[in-house]
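Check the record.
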Amino acid sequence: MNRRALLLLNRHARRGKEGLSEAVAKLQELGFDLQEESTQKPQQLPEIIRRYCDRVDLVIIGGGDGTLNAAAEGLIDTQLPLGILPLGTANDLARTLSVPVSLPEACEVIATGQEQRIDLGWVNGKHFFNVASLGLSVQITQQLTKEIKQRWGVFAYAVTAIQVVGRSRPFLAEIRLNDESIQVRTVQIAVGNGRYYGGGMTVADDASIDDQRLDLYSLEVQNAWQIVRLLPAMLKGKQAEWSEVRSLQGREIEVSTLKPLPINTDGEITTYTPAKFRLIPEAISVLVPQSPLRTP
């Protein structure tokens, strides 16, 4: 009997148009009975998923990290397994889960892979797979246009970071964790649930999306250009070894600032400080390759 799948595609994703027919043909070849839906408004994805709850066995989402983030509430509510077709620019969740960028191979994972429970992050009512952050990363998000993504692909994040890093200014924040209050002067605070973010940066060298913890780091540099020096370490998740970086771990974290600052969740600005971060352990099920999740 064919498996029934709800296929949600973001045709505006970097590889959305070119990947559509290829993915559909491959999934049908692998025996899936597909119910295709699309929307111009990502906020409608949870309701679409809920509507199909009793009619399908899983949800397949083709898009980038922003599209996956938008669908999170529907996946939590229905507990339908998630299959991922990485059609976006960064595809950090796919990278974390070792889902291949090649669409035929990603389809094979959906057909033959194993289900894995993963954690989700939560901040002020918004869920995130990878990272929620404030400061420099928000400025990068605001400058990261569709045209830059189309032209530079995964390197768009680095190109945009170079453009904005010189304009970044430190801000004062209070971090509360385990009944301790920490005052910081920082250019960025990032709270990670997964392993990768920002086109391949690493949250922490031992981070995984099922470790049931949040990893926070704060970039407390005197000059924003010091971040350039830190980039090799941030790619490997080794930034905690630098004196300019504060690293903390926990399941509940609060961050407040003198005035409300925007917060970026998986590449989209969705809320503002003051912020309450929380871990939701084993929140949803995803389809991953038969080998275990990538470990540090």
The chain has a mean pLDDT of 87. Residues 22 and 30 are 12 Å apart (CA to CA).
